[in-house]
Amino acid sequence: GEEKIPKFDVLTIRQWFNMMDADGNGHLDKQEWLEFLRHNPRLKTLILRGHAEPAQKPKSQDTGEAFRQGQEDAREIRRLMKIWRELDVDNSGTLEWEEFVEFFRQAGNLLEYRENSSNPKQRMAELVGNLNQNQAGVTEQDMDELERLAAKHLSGQRRRSLEMDACAKVPDVIPER
């Protein structure tokens, strides 16, 4: 059967971007990219799958298993770097948010909304993006709006993960219990 392509809303993708962006400077360097994907195999698989390349079925014999695994890892890193270079459209050596989200759009993983501006998840993604890029410029109103939208449109678990993210980026805002 046809394999269903998993879809993610822009808010989820924004959260991945923010998590990858360890130093919070608003773009990803190669180190952040590889580090994060190494620790997040599911996202790594998604990115590798979103990038069309024939999958080789490994022949499983025990001899040289570790060696083959090493080769496999090296091949994976090469592919991730190749994807990185393709994503880095402006050749800046870093991935910007627009480049990152564009990858998921092209891979068919982005849940697109027709009415962009009025979509709550779109708006939350914008707010979360602002949080990541300029903590100083984020106002109480922004945080309130984010909380209101989250309370209204996200399930409990998803909302908590968003609050945790927001608080990690903005140390002095504590989610009220």
Poorly predicted runs: none
Mean pLDDT: 82
In terms of DSSP E residues, the strand content is under 5%
The helix/strand series, from N terminus to C terminus, equals HEHHHEHHHH
What profile does the largest beta sheet have?
Answer: 2 strands, antiparallel
Kindly state the number of beta strands: 2
SS element count, helices: 8
Rg is: 18 Å
Shape summary: globular
- Judged by helices, strands and strand pairing, the structural class is mainly alpha
Distance between the termini: 46 Å
Helix content: 55-70%
Q: How do the strands line up in the largest sheet?
A: 1-2
How would you describe this structure in keywords?
177 residues, mainly alpha, 8 helices, 60% helix
Describe the structure.
The structure is a single chain. By secondary structure, this protein is mainly α. Helix content is 60%, strand content 2%. The chain contains 8 helices and 2 strands, in the order H-E-H-H-H-E-H-H-H-H. It has helices at residues 10-20, 30-39, 41-50, 65-87, 97-107, 120-133, 140-153, 156-169; strands at 27-28, 95-96. It has a two-stranded antiparallel ribbon with strand order 1-2. The longest helix is centred in the middle third of the chain and has 23 residues, at 65-87. It is globular, with a radius of gyration of 18 Å. The termini are far apart. The mean pLDDT is 82.
